[in-house]
């Protein structure tokens, strides 16, 4: 693995409070968490580990990307898939939440000479890419920033409102064709790639591993691509090795990296699928 910049942001373990809860779909929840003003501003792509303080049976915090951040407010957007996410979705306003973060290494900013910045989100991968897109759009450079968002059906589509701004454009795909392009988000991207210069294009992706694997297959070797990986996590700080993934080490040999500490964002060429 090439030397990757260590995040200078020191993670904090803090108590937050639930300020607002919105069920944005029957199985998707957006939580606004109030934290102390001293909570460090995260880089896009970083994540936090979270659990409700009142449930001692939930031993481990769960990892979530940062969907939005303003000083003293963190937002997370998640799908309810099991015990931890269900417990979070059932919290009442003002209840206490254990938060550890910001963690991991975020997305490297696109080099200045890139004309096209493409963000490719499968399902809940939109959470981290939405935050990144908004941060890029504030830089106001005259570059195309397109977010490709894929979902199974129109009903499953995560919220895309934050991506509707002057400097951003959004393209949608649904597997069943109920909204936007009919097919996968990778198919949608593939249709656009021939019109873009590979060395002037940078791609950032987040979503299920199967989708990321397909994404890597269609990318020109001259195009830089960074992927945010999701692995089951226990400690979130690089201590337990529970989130190790196989990557290319020196000379292409097999090596391992911790998604929580060395990632979650990796160069696509580093990953061994
Ligand atoms: C760095 C990182 C950022 C993440 N950001 C988000 C986010 O912004 N929004 C979001 O909805 N989810 C996100 N996830 C996934 C989320 O952490 C899991 O869905 C959650 O921990 C499941 O907890 P649970 O107790 O509800 O489910 P469990 O009961 O632990 O598991 C239920 C099901 O979810 C699957 N699952 C559990 N953990 C993961 C995981 N890490 N990746 C993929 N599948 C998993 C299990 O295999 C199982 O099928 C992220 C994961 C990581 C590692
Ligand atoms: S979760 Fe413990 S090392 Fe990554």
Give me the secondary-structure topology.
Blueprint: E1 12-25, E2 28-34, E3 47-52, E4 62-65, E5 68-70, E6 73-79, H1 83-89, E7 96-103, E8 116-122, H2 126-137, E9 144-151, E10 169-174, E11 181-182, H3 185-192, E12 201-206, H4 209-218, E13 224-228, E14 244-248, E15 254-258, E16 265-267
Parallel strand pairs: 8-9, 8-12, 9-10, 10-11, 12-13
Antiparallel strand pairs: 1-2, 1-7, 2-6, 3-4, 3-7, 5-6, 13-16, 14-15
**Residues in β-strands, percent:** 35-45%
Distance between the termini: 15 Å
Which molecules are bound in this entry? flavin-adenine dinucleotide, FE2/S2 (inorganic) cluster
The gyration radius over C-alpha positions equals 18 Å
Number of discrete helical segments: 4
Walk me through the structure.
- It is a single chain.
- A 7-stranded antiparallel beta sheet has the order 4-3-7-1-2-6-5. It has a 7-stranded mixed beta sheet with strand order 11-10-9-8-12-13-16, with helices on both faces. A two-stranded antiparallel sheet has the order 14-15.
- It is 14% helix and 35% strand.
- It has 4 helices and 16 strands.
- It has 273 residues and is mainly beta.
- The chain folds into 2 domains: 12-103, Translation factors (Elongation Factor Tu (Ef-tu), domain 3); 107-228, Nucleotide-binding domain of ferredoxin-NADP reductase (FNR) module (Rossmann fold, 3-Layer(aba) Sandwich).
- Helix 2 links the parallel strand 8 (116-122) and strand 9 (144-151).
- The longest helix is centred in the middle third of the chain and has 12 residues, at 126-137.
- The chain binds flavin-adenine dinucleotide (FAD) and FE2/S2 (inorganic) cluster.
- The site of flavin-adenine dinucleotide has 21 residues, from strand 4, strand 6 and helix 1.
